[in-house]
Structure formats: structure tokens, C-alpha cells
Amino acid sequence: MKINKKMKLLITLVISTLLISIVIYYYGDNDNVYNEISYKSFLNYVEKGYISEIKLNDKSQLIGKFSDEKKFIIDNPRREDFKEYLLLHDVKVIEDGERDVLSQAIGLILFLVPIGLLAYIMNKNGSKQIEKEMAYMLEMDTENNLSDIITFNDVAGNEEAKESLKELVDFIRDPEKYIKYGARLPKGVLLYGPPGTGKTLLAKAVAGEAKVPFYPVSGSDFVQVYAGLGASRIRELFKKAKEHGKSVIFIDEIDALGKKRTGGNGHGSSEEGDRTLNALLTEMSGFKGNEGIIVMAATNRIDTLDDALLRPGRFDRQIEVGLPDVKARHDILKLHSRNKPLSKDVDLKKVALETIYFSGAKLENLMNESAMLAAKRRDKFITMEHIDKAYYTILVGEEKRDKSSISFEDKKITAFHEAGHALVAKKVSNVNRVTKVSIIPSTKGMGGFSLNLPPDRMYQTKKDIITNIKIALGGRAAEELIFGKENITTGASSDLQKATEMTLSMIGSYGMDNKVGLVSYDVILNSNLNTDISLMERTKELLDNLYRETMEILEENIYYLEKIAGRLLEKESIGEDELDSIIAC
Ligand code: ADP
Ligand code: ZN
Question: Do 339 and 434 share a domain, yes or no?
């Protein structure tokens, strides 16, 4: 665009007014020192008249001022009569977005006039880019770091990760100590592991322990929400962090930005991601390392990350955050029961034993669902019954309300199908537990379920995998055995999907098949080699064999199959003890 001298002057003028006005407008919020206080002490302060003002909104936390102008944060009680309560106690109430009227008016005028002018100019020149930038900058500034103060005490399990992060906290607090010894400081820390295992929580805890601000962003937002502005948002973020001094920048889902750039084809579509990623790498290399700023990132899939991200000087510290083992699950359950009225019959150790493969988030969800149930029924304590119910809800979804529409025929098919899974699980190995079998349909679309609890171990043996394949095939095999080949149903589709997946990885990834040997198909398929061993055929052959063996187990035990199915039709669901006693006699 062509800009003449006059225009240039005008733009400079507008921009500088704009900057000044932003400063004025946001002045009030610039000293970001907030004390978090509990709701209880807050009420205490209100009664004593120490609170001068509070801002109401529907966020999870609220900001307010003491009479001495110091700021504080409390959890939002979301009380209906909260405003009245405050007003009755002479606390000034500011509703969401409201400031005190005068500064608001001045701010608004100072703010809107230049924006209007600027928009006019830019529009004339056919670009709305600046407007967008402004909107985004504002958002950055209003986005407060009110993240509740989290410490390592709020994270259970994950001992290795915590240990390694404690060092980091020490570094943020006292970088000089490390520099004196010439130690190379980590610039970026990557937390990787399955979703819900506490990666975000750990990052927050680092900030909380080091008592520095926490700046969270999400990789997917850069691609989806800030389309076209990803790179500038990264620069803003770092600028903001540097202005503050010590801080923790946290990038969740970093894989959305830093996917492997696969030769050629990955290009074009992810140009935006590339630009954002480059901005991030540039910013990270710009650190001198003694500022006490740490960049943390999280991903569920470290294998898909661009190598550029993992090089020294970038995310050079990688910490695995895995699913919790029994002890960690017990600790997490205890942690999330801290403020809940548990009845004496609740055995969290037992719950921990039965929640294999549950992430921390799922465990938290379990305790919360249990509490909700108890509250709904106005029971005094949370009992094992509530926890049981919550457990199945989390695993298979809510029970369908209207069960009357299911025909007896369908119920019978479901009963034999589920009995098939359960029986195979019990007969094929003696370490499997089946904690519950049910033909109650769930809102997740399942006709019923058989809950199989495998032993808690780090590795799976070939035998374990074969066992699991047979259990998965047990449903279909029972249908065929009882109702005939012509009457098998669609109910087995997800079982077959699982069985096929397990067989395929057994052969192709784990080198567990005699015919295929130790060849890793993951490698072969990626190398574009033409192979003449047909993986598909071998998978089918193995699956067919395993299906035949599963069928044999059921044939031999058809007496028990009918008994379990009969009991299911009668009672709709049976527990572990009952199932074991049926099979024992
Ligand atoms: P991620 O970032 O790994 O997906 P989050 O940190 O967001 O997982 O975890 C979600 C929630 O699950 C946390 O806020 C917390 O309530 C609970 N949680 C997860 N892991 C743990 C843990 N190790 N200890 C305590 N709570 C946990
Ligand atoms: Zn099934």
C-alpha cells in the first residue's frame, strides 16, 4: 500500500494514542499481586469490614480489594444472594466488565477513538489485520493468571516427575546458583504421557512452588483460534513473560504445533503451524537462560513431535508422566477424598486395586461422581455403594432410563454374549478377575458389559495378549454356539475391532508370531518396501485359530454358559462373588 507523508504521521499519532490509552485503561490491573484467601476467611473479613470492593462474574474465581487496596482472589461461591450480602456489608460490587464509571468512560473514549480512526484508515487500505491484532492483544492482557496456587502436595503419585521438577523449581528461584557452577540450564521441559495423568497439574505446581506467574496456552488454539496470528501470539506471550521476569510458560498439546514434518506431503497445510513453531523456537533460543523463565509443554504423543523441538537448547528435558500404579492410585484417591465425608465402609485401597488403567483425572472424576450421587440422595456419607455406581457410570456410561423397549429376544442375545465374555475370561486364565457382568443397556450404546480386570503389570506377555483376544471373541462365539451361525448379530463389532487390533500388533509390532518372526511391520510399512508376506492373511489365520479355541472352551463349558446367562436374565447384573460361585459348582 502506498502511504503518503501525511498519512504516515496520522498513523504514528493514532498508534501512539492507542498505546497510551491502553496503558491508562489497563493501569488498574497492572500490579498483578493477588493473595489467594479462602472463602471462609473472606467472609470473616467482610464481617469485620476489611473488604472494600469485589468484582462479580461467573468465572470460578473472583478478584477483590481490601480496604488498603491490596488485591485478593477467592473461589467464586456462586451464591444467589451473594451480591445482596456484599452490599449489606458495604462492599462495593462491580459486575463483570464494569469498572468504576469515570475511568471506564475515559478509558473507553481514549480507547475507541483511535481504534475507530485506525480501522477507518486500515479499511481504506483494505486490511483488517491490525484490528485483529489489537483484539488479540487485549485478550492477552485481560487473561489473568489467577490459576489457583497449586503445589506438589496437590499432585499424588508421579514421584519421579516431581523429583525432577523440584530441581527446576530451585533453578527458577535461584538461577545464579546454577550459573556459578557453569551448569547448562534446561530451557524447555516436555511432559509426555496419556491424557489426564496430571501434566498440566505438574506444570502449575512448578509455578506454584516457585511462586511465579503461570502462563498457559494450548497448541491447538494456535492452529484453530488464532489462525494467521500464531507466530505473533507466541512473541507476545514471551514478551509478556519477560516483562514480568520469572515465570512458567505452559504449552499444552504442543503436538498440534510441532508435528513431524514428514517429507513433502506434510507441507502447505501446516504452514501456519510451521510459522508458529519457528517463532517458538526462535523465542526459546533468544533466552539467555538466567531469567528464570521456564517453558513447559505437554503432549500425549511424543513420537509425533518434530525433532526440532527435542534438540538441545529446546525441550531438552523430557519427563514421562505415566498412568498411576496401584499405590499412586490409592494416593490420588486419598487426595481427592480429602474434603469429602467418606463412610467407614469405604476401602480406598480396594478401589485402587479395581481401577487399573484409570488416569488421575478419571480417579478424580470417580470421587466427584460418588460425591454427587451421595448429595443427590442426601445421604450423610459417601458409601461404597455410591463409589460402585459411579465406577460403572464412568466405565460404561449412565444406565439407560427406559429399558422397557428392549425385547426379550434381544435381552437373551445380550445375556449369552456377555456370559460368553465372562466365562472365557474365567476359564482361559486364572489371574483374570471379572468384577461385574451386566445386561443393562447404557447410554453409551452398549447392550451390556462384562468387566474384566487383568492383573496390574508393566508388560504383557504373548500369553496375556492371546488371553485378551479370546475374551474379546467370547461374545460372538457364545452367540454362534447358542443361536446358530445364521443368527449372529452386529453386537460384536467393537469386540472384533479390538481382537483384530491386538492380533495385528502381536504379529506386526511385538515380533510374537513364528511365521512372521521378528520383523516389525511398523518399520516395513514406513519404508515403502514392497512386501510379499501378507500381514492381512496371517492375521486372519491367527484370529480364526483363536476363535476356534474360544469356541471349544465354550462348548466344553456350555452348562456354565447357560447358567450365567440365565442368572443375568433374572437379575440383569451379577457381581464377582456370584459369578465365581456359579463357576465353582
Ligand atoms: P493432563 O494435563 O495430563 O491431561 P491434568 O493435569 O489436566 O492432566 O489432570 C486433570 C485433573 O485430574 C487434575 O486437575 C486433577 O484433579 C486430576 N489429576 C490428574 N493426575 C493427578 C495426580 N497425579 N494427582 C492428583 N490429581 C490428579
Ligand atoms: Zn462383546
Answer: no
